[in-house]
Amino acid sequence: MSKFGKKKKEVPAVNTAALPDIVFMLLFFFMVSTTMRETSLLIKKPKLPSATEVKKLEHKSLVSTIYVGKAVNPSEGTGDKIQLNDKISTVNDIVNFIYSERDKHDADEQKAMVTSIKADMKTNVGTISDIKDELQSINALKISYSSSSGDVANNFK
C-alpha cells in the first residue's frame, strides 16, 4: 500500500458573481432597443392581403399610416372604418391628418414622406378609392399598401 492516497478531483463550482451584471445588461439592451406601439388599434387587426413582391419601407419615421377595417367596438357601427392616429375618422379628415403629419417634418423630409394604407382583405374597394382620391387632392402621391408576404392564390380560398 502506498503512503499517499489518491485524492478525487472535484469539478470547481461555476462562478456566478458576474451573472447579475449580465442580466442587467440584457435588460437594459432590450429596454433601449424595443419600440412601443404608438397607436392603439380601434379597428379589428387587419388581415392583410398577401403579395409575392414586397419591399420594406426604409424610414419608418416618414410613414403616415391609415388603418382601414371593421371597428372593434360595435357601437361605432358597421361597415369600413378609417383610423387616423388614435381615433376613428372619416375620409374628410384625411387631409388634415396628412397636413399635421407633414408639419412634424422639415421641407426636405416632406418630399420623402409615404402614406401607408393598412387595410383588411375584405375592405370595400370604394373606401380605398375614396382615400386615394383625398390623398391625390393634396398631392400625397407616395402610397404604400401593407401586405403580408405569401402566395397570392391563397387569398381567394
UniProtKB/TrEMBL annotation:
Signal peptide: none annotated. It is found in: Cell membrane. One of its GO terms (cellular component) is plasma membrane. It comes from Wenyingzhuangia marina. InterPro entries: ExbD. The keyword Transferase does not apply. This is Biopolymer transport protein ExbD. Keywords: Cell membrane, Membrane, Protein transport, Transmembrane, Transmembrane helix, Transport. It is a single-pass membrane protein; Single-pass type II membrane protein. GO terms for biological process: protein transport. One of its GO terms (molecular function) is transmembrane transporter activity. Belongs to the ExbD/TolR family. Its main location: membrane. The keyword Zinc does not apply.
